[in-house]
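Narrative summary of target 7.
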Amino acid sequence: MFAQPMTFPVGSFPRLSKPVRVALAAVTLVTSWAMLVPSLTEAAAAKAPRAPLKVYISVDMEGIAGVVTADQLGPGGFEYERFRRFMTDEAVAAVRGAKAAGATDIVVSDSHGNGESLLIELFPKDVRIVRSWPRHGEMMAGLDSSFAAALFVGYHASTTNPQGVRAHTISSAHFTRVALNGIAVTEAEMNAAYAGALGVPVIFISGDDAAISEVTAHLGSMESVITKKSLGFHSAESIAPATACDQIYQGALNAVSHRDQRKPYVLKTPISLEVSFKSYTAAEIVSYLRAVERVDAHSIRFVGRDMAEVMDFVVFLDYYNPEMTP
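Modeled conformation, tokenized:
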């Protein structure tokens, strides 16, 4: 609503001389216009489009409320269809929270299993979804420096952590340790380093208590939601799916609202990647590459110029199979 300017006709000052009355009227007009201009400016600002605020959400499944075994994690499990809905619900809760905090452009990465677990029809129609493998950036595919922040939903502890539910790093089938610059890392830390190289901070994470404790110990305190308490590799005390969604919505809203309090996680380059395999044969064969050093019977080291090169090498290790078709 505009302020109503006060106006006085020249004749409103009958006891004053005509020149004085004219001068007073002019001053009144200028004062009224000065009052009106801020109102016009505020109205224009209210109608102006919001500046773009891009948010990236990477979604895994092991950290989703209620997940404890392979029964929930893949198409062969009898609970998979129900739990991919719970996974989707938690991702949508994060989307809603980010939007409530002002996000205008959201990309969601389906980052579990075959990369096709999220029920994409349940997302708002303006959300874009990254699916399937292989892809540059792995769990962060599609991220670039134009994003303001990244959120992690459904994440888990590392393969070297004895406490987490379904704890692993990148590949539960092949890798027993993954390290960056000599320090064993979680998938969250690796993905945060990838995002940090692009200037994007990670501002939120959800998952079991072991995952949250491990990740925040290395990346620093951030908005987080503990979806369950680990009781073992295949057991947990979980909160209800609806409760997890409520908390993730609020956590995402708070995180995006206060995103400036988090800084990007940046590793010193060049970056040393060490991977230990369950099989010594894999380590031997990979070490035939001149850029790879065999550290011990089960481990290799690769030095990348940056996180993009390191991540591409991880994708190669995880997905290359000479029997692949087509």
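Helices lie at 18-47, 70-73, 80-100, 187-197, 209-219, 241-257, 280-286, 307-319.
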